[in-house]
Amino acid sequence: MSDTKLRILHVIEPTLGGTKRYIEDVFYALENVNNLKLGLIYSLNRSEPSFLLLLEKLRKNGVELFEVPMVRSISPISDLQAALKIRAIIKKFKPNIIHCHSSKAGGLVRLLKLLFQVNNTVKTVYTPNELATSIAWYYGLIETLLLPVTDRLIAVTEAEKKRIIRDLNVTTKKVSVVSPLISAHRFVPQSKEEARKRLNVSQDKFLVIALGRLAHQKRPEIFVDIACRLLQVLPSQVDFLWVGDGPLRHQIEDLIKKKKMDGVLKITGWVSDVRDFIAAADIVVMPSKYESFGYVAAETMAMERVVVVSDVPALQEVVGNKTLVFQNSEEAVEIIIRLLSNTEQLNTIAQELRQSVTQRFSKERMKDSLLNVYCNLLIDKV
């Protein structure tokens, strides 16, 4: 193996949701770059089935894979065991750069550098995928303590960059933006009628959907409230779907029954490919409490459908259209009614959204952004 290759070791704990998607994008963006040797340390304790398929693909592409069990919460014994395994892998792989994804992976690797003096010539890059500082005060303290061994932080949007600078009190130079990519060849406009046939969904009603885990972050109860209010204005004219599954499923199903909406609002469960659902929809709603990026929004835009989002800074940045942003259920209903009452305007906005997203979130752009971060770090090293 050539010693001239740049060796980059990625470390990730949660292999599901947006974090899994981002690491998948990273490897896809870098797959044909010469003189790179890539490695991945991962955990399967919090994963989804599609991650196993990704591992097989990475293995075939020559990525060195290392499984290290990690847990989400702070657990001294488990964390020490994971840290020691990671330390051994670092010694074996001999990376020039370690790129950590999410707070647990970022915490373990940087703690190794701080306490065990793991080869301080190795540069450390940290993509938090949403800082944990809002969860508890001590996460902010941990992040601050680990800043001296953090060579570069990566945000996925300008909005997230601003928050990192504010919450961690770091300089602009310390934080780079590397936005994910959206495959304009995979997420393409499709016939609404054909998608509805495949899904056995009514052709005669409007269809409003939400996609994602049934978890507090996604605020599915807000989607239920929006649906309930919308039906009061457009009775018997709209069907609703939540595409996904999660820990709040039983609670949300009970709420749907309480609202007497179990005939018009359905939960699909986990779906491996959401494209038919997006294609079948008139409008996609994202009522999230927070997002570091918002893949659902970007994919919806790429498929030439309109997405209406909560006033989360990252979602506003991705969508780039203030008329599609709501602060509460009432505003969401007003926006949806306005759009459904003018299909010509709805289609025009959808076309504009696709053009915007395919220009801003390309594979080439992500590759250039990543390589710029890595190369600049090595130049600083010299």
Could you characterize the architecture of this molecule?
With 382 residues, the chain is α/β, with parallel strands linked by helices. The protein folds into 2 domains: 6-180 and 362-381, Glycogen Phosphorylase B (Rossmann fold); 192-360, Glycogen Phosphorylase B (Rossmann fold, 3-Layer(aba) Sandwich), CATH 3.40.50.2000. Helices cover 47% and strands 16% of the residues. The chain has helices spanning 17-30, 49-60, 76-93, 103-115, 137-146, 158-168, 192-199, 220-233, 249-258, 275-280, 295-302, 313-319, 329-340, 343-360, 363-381; strands at 6-12, 36-42, 64-67, 97-101, 123-127, 152-155, 175-177, 206-211, 238-243, 265-267, 283-286, 306-310, 325-326. It has a 7-stranded parallel β-sheet with strand order 3-2-1-4-5-6-7, sandwiched between helices. Strands 10-9-8-11-12-13 form a 6-stranded parallel β-sheet, sandwiched between helices. Helix 1 crosses helix 15 (363-381) and helix 3 crosses helix 4 (103-115). It is elongated, with a radius of gyration of 22 Å. The model has no long low-confidence stretch (mean pLDDT 92).
Task: Please outline what is shown here.
By secondary structure, this protein is α/β, with parallel strands linked by helices.
What is the strand and helix layout of this fold?
Blueprint: E1 6-12, H1 17-30, E2 36-42, H2 49-60, E3 64-67, H3 76-93, E4 97-101, H4 103-115, E5 123-127, H5 137-146, E6 152-155, H6 158-168, E7 175-177, H7 192-199, E8 206-211, H8 220-233, E9 238-243, H9 249-258, E10 265-267, H10 275-280, E11 283-286, H11 295-302, E12 306-310, H12 313-319, E13 325-326, H13 329-340, H14 343-360, H15 363-381
Helix pairs in contact: 1-15, 3-4, 8-13, 11-14
